[in-house]
Amino acid sequence: MAEVATARRSRITPEREAELYEAVLELLREVGYDALTMDAVAARTRSSKATLYRQWGGKPELVAKAIRHNKPGSIADIDTGSLRGDLHALTAREDDCTMQQNAALMRGLFMAVHSNPDLLQAFKELLIEPEMEEFHRVVQRAVDRGEVEAGRPALDYIVHMLVGAFATRTLIDDQPPTQAFLTSYIDAVVLPALGIPVD
Question: How far apart are CA 187 and CA 168, in angstroms?
């Protein structure tokens, strides 16, 4: 799917692609996934619907790519020399306002994924699997440095812990996720689970 998508996207400039993705995110925030239509995207971006289908194949792929494009760079590029530093740097990539907007957006998309198998597949292939691969490289560096034991059981659940904290902050505390909350969570929960002392 990725190779086909790359071939299709080659006809659109990076600037135009970014413009289209931003419009998709705006529409998602306004109406949600189920009510978002390719007609609406075409109208918002002054594109033809045929062009959108030719470039992205359909709504699931377009939405997954827009979310991926909105992320601030590769996780694997973060290398501070320690896992604690890397996780804190990962948290610091988005300010609190952006984090709050993205949390609301993701809550809506999580619900849509359960009733849209095509969206789930697009998310797995275009968003989740690439990000998991990048994240595993960050964690593997910590193992290679000797910070974390290779057989530590919590290694398989770091992403679950972080995503869980991000996603449930509003539900449990009626507050949006913030840099301060996530940094504190990393120090209080994630690092101790990995056997990394926090001074």
Answer: 18
Least confident of 80-84, 144-148, 153-157, 195-199: 195-199
pTM: 0.79
As a whole number of angstroms, the distance between CA 28 and CA 38 comes to: 12
Q: Radius of gyration of the chain from Cα atoms?
A: 18
Cα 189 to Cα 147: distance, rounded to the nearest angstrom: 16
Spatial contact of 58 and 118, defined as CB atoms under 8 Å apart: yes
Q: What share of the chain has pLDDT > 90, as a percent?
A: 66
| Structure token pair of residue 132 | 């998991």
**How far, CA to CA in Å, does 66 sit from each of 19, 105, 121, 150?**
10, 12, 15, 35
Q: Which residues contact 151 (CB under 8 A, 6 or more apart)?
A: none
The torsion angles phi and psi of 142, rounded to 5 degrees, stand at: -65, -40
